[in-house]
Write a structure and sequence with these properties.
By secondary structure, the chain is mainly α. It is built from 3 helices and no strands. The longest helix is centred in the N-terminal third of the chain and has 23 residues.
Amino acid sequence: MRIAGFVMLFFGLVALAFSIFGLLVADKPTGHNVPFFENSWMIIMAIFWTFSGLGVVLTFGKEDDKRIKR
């Protein structure tokens, strides 16, 4: 379960990186055509996957993984 949390956290950080990259390459004078921000799904996905993955990683500690493998 902890590995699933790391995967979710990774995908959330990737979506967050795309969102930040979209802000950096945006057409700043006009404020139009901001990639990954025109549709809010990328931001929602970044928030959801990052915090849910972090929650899973923090909920299931290393001790739980060791106990399951016995």
